[in-house]
């Protein structure tokens, strides 16, 4: 599903953030990446999503080299094949929960009624059944992250990219949210790449790697 080969990224000033990144994910595989602050974990996700360009190396998603795509094609690839979960939730405050979750389907120009039905079904699967008409301001942080998980999965993407999804939550809420996230992505059968500072979150993955300037190494 995902093949990263020889990825190199430098930052302004010429410092190499990391080099020689090689990573492969098969459907259903869950990999966590940890590393010190500033190691480039979020940058790596941006490179994989085609939101940033490497200095060298390649990223293939479903066999497609994203460097070969123009901006519109990369946008379609993200829209159709990737689900995103972020630390800051990125739930839109002016939309109710059902319309927030249905956004990926709306971007795919799916039928509005069917999209809302699918969104409400996803909300039910993350424990927010019957809450589709509520607004983000009415929810706790843990509930907002559940909405973000539902939105990431509603269009059945092949690849989930998660950037510190429990980073803004207290430990108890984080543990519950992480368990639900793992349950849902396992059920979906998507490949998952999670970047995190949390050893607890990393331990939920099939494989845990550490990002260093020289590449990815197995967590000891």
Provide structural commentary.
The chain is built from eight helices and ten strands. It is α/β, with parallel strands linked by helices and 220 residues long. The protein has one domain: Rossmann fold, CATH 3.40.50. The radius of gyration is 17 Å and the shape is globular. 36% of the residues lie in helices and 26% in strands. The strands form two sheets. Strands 6-7-8-3-9-10 form a six-stranded mixed β-sheet. Helix 6 (141-153) packs parallel to helix 7. It has helices spanning 41-48, 71-81, 97-101, 103-107, 112-125, 141-153, 171-188, 199-203, and strands at residues 2-10, 16-25, 30-34, 56-61, 64-65, 82-86, 159-163, 191-195, 207-212, 215-218.
CATH architecture annotation: 3-Layer(aba) Sandwich
Q: Report how far apart the termini are.
A: 26 Å
Briefly note the structural class of the backbone. Answer: alpha/beta
The biggest sheet, with number of strands, parallel, antiparallel or mixed sense and barrel status, is: 6 strands, mixed
């Amino acid at each position: 599903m995902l093949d990263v080969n020889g990825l190199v990224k430098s930052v302004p000033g010429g410092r190499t953030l990391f080099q020689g990144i090689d990573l492969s994910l098969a459907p259903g595989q869950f990999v966590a990446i940890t590393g010190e602050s500033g190691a480039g974990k979020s940058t790596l996700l941006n490179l994989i999503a085609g939101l940033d360009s490497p200095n060298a190396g390649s990223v293939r998603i479903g066999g497609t080299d994203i460097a070969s795509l123009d901006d519109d094609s990369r946008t379609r690839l993200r829209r159709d094949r990737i689900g995103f979960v972020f630390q800051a939730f990125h739930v839109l405050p002016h939309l109710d929960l059902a319309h927030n979750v249905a956004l990926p389907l709306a971007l795919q120009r799916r039928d509005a009624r069917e999209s809302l039905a699918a969104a409400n079904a996803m909300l039910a699967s993350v424990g927010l059944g019957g809450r589709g008409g509520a607004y983000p301001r009415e929810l706790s942080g843990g509930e907002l992250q559940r909405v973000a998980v539902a939105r990431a999965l509603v269009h059945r993407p092949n690849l989930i990219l998660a950037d510190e999804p429990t980073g803004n939550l207290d430990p108890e809420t984080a543990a519950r949210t992480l368990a639900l996230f793992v349950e849902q992505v396992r059920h979906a059968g998507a490949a998952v790449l999670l970047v995190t500072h949390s050893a607890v979150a990393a331990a939920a993955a099939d494989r845990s790697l550490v990002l260093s300037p020289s590449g990815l190494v197995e967590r000891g």
